[in-house]
Amino acid sequence: MKFKSFPSKCRIGKLRDLATAIRRLHLTVVLAVAGFALTQTAPAQTDNFNSGTLTGWQTSVSSNYPGSITFVPDAFGGSAVRLKATTSAVTNTPALQNTARVMLLNTNQYYTNNFYIAVDLVDWNSSPDRSTNDSVIGLIAHATNVVLDANVPVGRPDGVIFASRYQSAGGSTTDNGTRGQLQIYAISDGGVPGPLAGAMQGDFTINPGHKYRMVFTGTNQLADPNDPNSSTNFFYAGRVYDLEDLTRPLASVFANEVYYPSFHYLGYYSPDGYSGIFAIGYNTDTPLKPMSCDITIDNFVASENPPPSSVSLPATPYGLAGVPQVVNRSPASYANFYVSSGGITFNATTLSTTNTISPSDIRLFINGLDVTSSLTVMGQATNRSVSFNGLASNAVYDARIELADAIGRKTTNIWTFDTFSDAYLASTAAKNIECEDFDFGGASIEDPIPSGYTFTNTLYFDENVIAYPWPLPINQGASSYVNKTGINARTNAGVGDYNDYDTTRGRSSTVLEGQYRPLGSIGTEQGSGDFVYFKIGFGQSASVTFDTQREKYYSVTNDSHGLQEYNVERTEGGEWIHYTRTFDSTNYYNVYLRAGCELSQQLRLDQIAAGPATNNLGFFYVTNALAKSNYRYSRMLDGSGKLAVVNLSGVNKLRLTVDVPQREKYKQALMLNYLAFVPAMLVESCATVDGTYSIETAASVDPGLRRITLPQSGGTRFYRLRTVGTDRPNITSFNLSGGNVELSYQ
Questions:
Q1: What sign does the dihedral 552-558-563-566 (CA atoms) show?
Q2: Helices in 37-100 by DSSP H: which ranges?
Q3: Which CATH architecture best describes the domain 14-303?
């Protein structure tokens, strides 16, 4: 992945040089990482809560902030802590101080500079009813209490927080659902002190049923020599990992105090204090509504700098020492265009010198199939080296590693990747439709050339500093879609190129939403705008993550910072887009949707016939990956859940629909990059070896496993495989099981 960061509001005549901006971002990251290597001046404070006591902790539970703190069983036979509150007795202070809350501050160490905090978020109130549940869950650093009230020892601190707001947007009913955010904020006296308190904010939604590890760091990069008012220059970083994949964070966010609100010299809080955990029932309504908060946390760690560990960034260790963990794994999570010959490799380790892992307690599943018998396991008992060679090219994989240690503690590592290649998808065997290349006025372009604007030429234009038309569009013309205008069916009696509820939004109203086709209401963005942060004197800035830059975009400018992948974004349930393309009737395809997803939902692909008739081709089930920048391929499945096969002839109008209700729990949660039509593996059968073969439409094919399952039919059947390409597939094994025929092929 590649990142870009830029100011999204700036005065005319004061545009900063792009190279300088990029160098500044790189310098910031380097300095922050360099801070990780500083000598630790105080031992780490850890608590797995297995003692059943809160020794060394200060709590907010009091007459003003009633709540409960209880110990509950955790997954490893120990204890976790549940924090719950339903109301606040405080009524005469600003709204955010009146809300229900539970806070825990670890008082074993007072941090005067850098900090590192981590905790497991095991569970939370996942009710989608925002009228009663709007929890802010997170970590607090440099916490002090300026209100010296014995009844509220912790409830109204000053500090800086890294938090997940579970329902930053949502409805008042259980059907409407939720959309969440990650935030880095300053708080003062238990509330948000003003508009400059927000350092970072972005759309990231934690997924009910999952468990996460939250990590928050602050590194003082010394005072800004150009700012006499600044005594500190902190780089803040927040990371969120799924506990079932600690090799890579699902979200990484940051804020820098020189170029963002300098909390300290604005007087919001002191750059020292305690570290801790909190949950708040967020509400600013008048009159206040009772908002509950209910979370379960475990395995707390706090120190001045990250504790020494053999796990290298971007990975993080388990919070509970000694449990089995997957490290140094290849391919990485969400790896795109991974070379299949590399296989799967990883270390199964306990990060200890005593706790061991037996080879028999290492298991690997790919696409649901147990392939443990094909593993090669070597190395020491505390650090096993494991490899698997058996991946197929041009396939999508969902993989799972299961580990157990000598005392029976089990962990799981789950991830996804693909083994497509850029060259394969660009070949004549495949067909791609870029999601942003939708029809315009009923017209279309059969083989559009890559077009758009480079990073340099779109950097500041979303703020309308320079009026449209923007200069230097790449390849604009009859052979490309850049700046083409489509018709919104919602404003044209149901007839058009797309259906978009946001009929008036576009380049003039929202940053990053009209970078490719700015004259229509559909959002077309270069990359994925993950989060925004704020700069004193400049306003809002954005951090954008790009999907893998394919060769066809790179070759336009021969620059990795040039023309990037575009997405359709800001989607809602019920919206659809039309694509008209020509297909060869002899080709059979499987279809994959390349997309990022923050809220799980279904899409469908239909063939639009004359009049209102539609022919459903299949469904895509895209799943919550916390961030829209975690791109992956979703397989198109038929109504029975099998990999769908598409055979089209001539000119076809296709409709891609967000096939869910128009609800908050599905809104603005997708980044749609492209549809990849790749050759399908066809199974044909005949009653005689030299007779007429017909396609087995009930066959279920898994290209990654190179396995085919189909119902057994009466009598003798002969089978053969057919696909497009130079490599002819061969059936390597045959099995009858449960009334099905199972074929393996190479």
A1: positive
A2: none
A3: Sandwich (2.60)
Which pair of tokens denotes residue 590? 């499987």
**For range 276-284, the mean pLDDT:** 89
Provide the residue ranges of all domains of the chain, joining segments of one domain with +: 14-303, 325-418, 431-529+557-679, 682-745
- Tokens 């002191």 correspond to 270
Other Cβ atoms within 10 Å of 126 Cβ, number: 15
Sequence length of the chain is: 746
Using one digit for the tens of pLDDT, what is the confidence trace for 615-646?
999 999 999 999 999 999 999 999 999 999 99
Q: Give buried/exposed letters for 147-179 (b at 16+ CB in 10 A, else e).
A: eeeeebbbbbbbbbbbbbbbbbbbbeeeebbbb
Q: Judge whether 14-303 and 431-529+557-679 match in fold.
A: yes
Report the SS3 class of residue 401: strand
Q: Which CATH architecture has domain 431-529+557-679?
A: Sandwich (2.60)
Q: How far apart are alpha carbons 380 and 383 in whole angstroms?
A: 5
What's the pLDDT score for residue 248? Answer: 97
d(CA 519, CA 530): 23
For 376-385, how does the pLDDT look when each residue is reduced to its tens digit (9 = 90+)? 999 999 999 9
Q: Read off φ and ψ for residue 321, nearest 5 degrees.
A: -65, 140
Res 559: pLDDT: 84
Indicate if the pLDDT at residue 31 is higher than 50. Answer: no
Of the candidates 512, 425, 532, the one whose C-alpha atom is nearest the C-alpha of residue 203 is 532
CATH number of 325-418: 2.60.40.1220
For 445-470, write each residue's pLDDT tens digit.
999 999 998 865 544 434 334 556 67
Q: How far apart are CA 715 and CA 692, in angstroms?
A: 16
Helices (H), 444-550: 455-458
Whole-Å CA distances, 633 to 416, 418, 591, 626 = 9, 8, 9, 16
Helix (H, G, I), strand (E, B) or coil at 6: strand
Q: Can you give the pLDDT at residue 416?
A: 98
How far from 380 is each of 63, 187, 356, 450, CA to CA, in Å?
55, 48, 9, 51
First-to-final CA distance of the chain: 32
Identify the bridge partners of residue 656 per DSSP, sorted by sequence position.
Answer: 577, 605
Distance between CA atoms of residues 506 and 570, nearest Å: 10
User: How far apart (Å, rounded) are the C-alpha atoms in residues 529 and 481?
Assistant: 22
Residue 457 Rama label (left phi>0; alpha psi -120 to 50; beta): alpha
